[in-house]
């Protein structure tokens, strides 16, 4: 508790929060004063001023934001567009490993103007091998402008910088994944494996902060998990906030914990305090289920924002608060998601996975969608047969992706292998058949007989007569 002194010298109590430089003055009179005393009015959450790491000119400030979490299958472009439609302030894309970006190609899809990062599949030895390019990341430069954060999987500072340089012109921020517990990530020293090598993680962040903000004007952030003890977590966070990052997201679970286990929030205030001391924005993640709940958690723990994962996978309208209409019926969310998937030419398997998450398992549409093999079938499952525009889009998407009536079905693998084997063996079989025929003919005297027959067939000229002799 601090005090402020009125004109008469009387002390008026003022809380530490009220001493914030962002508060506005109000005039009040104390019981013993003979002149008005000036004391600050209580500030709002958004008016509290703390030291801030400078936000680059193209970067985003994570404070006051409710955002979509990075998810491997549920963070593709259609899901991000749906989250933004329902009120997400920012969206994280799925973790993308640095190796896949180095040597990739950036192109603009002429049909929808989406930006795509592509590369040749690893099993294609040459352009003549018959394999088309694989889209490894897709973004919408219009609807995601200034709102897309690219999450990078990396374990090496140089590769991290090279990959970040490739994507930086198209995104609003680069976030390093230091929390993913899945084997594909930690086996390469990425994700949660970096929590055990804090100096390596700090080195990656420092390299990115040194190279990317000055050149591209966007900030660097990191997403981590809790360590086993509060002192370990505190030591890690204190090291990371000194690297120059603009934001830190704390997933309130330890590495071994699964999503079904309740989030642990006992260390959250400590993490927030360490971040705020360094001027770094602090976002919380773990069991955040909607905007209204997120507002309550932000107020309770004093963090700067929150990140939604699982709830957004089920129904992204969770980003919409009750005052704005609340949760939308799943049918509405699915119909809009399907439209975004067709606009993006999204891979059929990814669309089917998300529809399976959003459609209740007992709904009749669920089983139909699971058996579908085209966008036309998806649209029909959602009762859109009579909607000309929806069916036109579905059919065009099928044409582009080679689905449904446009699918070119390959021969069965066994039949294809037998055909290739026969083609390889055919020349040798022809030679062997010719030799066998020649051997049989020689053994049976067939060649000599054919020669004799041929000679008999040749006409023999008649002997000349006396009359025909030339005189």
UniProtKB/TrEMBL annotation:
Domain called DUS-like FMN-binding: residue spans: 133-360
Q: What is the protein name given in its UniProt record?
A: DUS-like FMN-binding domain-containing protein
**Span list, region Disordered:** 18-52, 409-471
Q: Which coenzymes or cofactors are required?
A: FMN
Give the classification, highest ranks: Eukaryota, Fungi, Dikarya, Ascomycota, Pezizomycotina
Q: Which GO terms describe its cellular component?
A: cytoplasm
Report the Pfam families cross-referenced here.
Dus
Question: What is the reaction catalyzed?
Answer: a 5,6-dihydrouridine in mRNA + NAD(+) = a uridine in mRNA + NADH + H(+); a 5,6-dihydrouridine in mRNA + NADP(+) = a uridine in mRNA + NADPH + H(+)
Biased-composition ranges, Low complexity, are: 18-51, 421-430, 454-471
An example GO biological process term is: mRNA processing
Give yes or no: UniProt keyword Ribonucleoprotein.
Answer: no
Report whether Flavoprotein shows up as a keyword of the record.
Answer: yes
UniProt function note: Catalyzes the synthesis of dihydrouridine, a modified base found in the D-loop of most tRNAs. Specifically modifies U47 in cytoplasmic tRNAs. Catalyzes the synthesis of dihydrouridine in some mRNAs, thereby affecting their translation.
Q: Name one GO molecular function term.
A: tRNA dihydrouridine synthase activity
Sorted keywords for this record are: Flavoprotein, FMN, mRNA processing, Oxidoreductase, tRNA processing
Q: Report TM segments.
A: none
Q: Which InterPro entries match?
A: Aldolase_TIM, DUS-like_FMN-bd, tRNA-DUS-like, tRNA_hU_synthase_CS
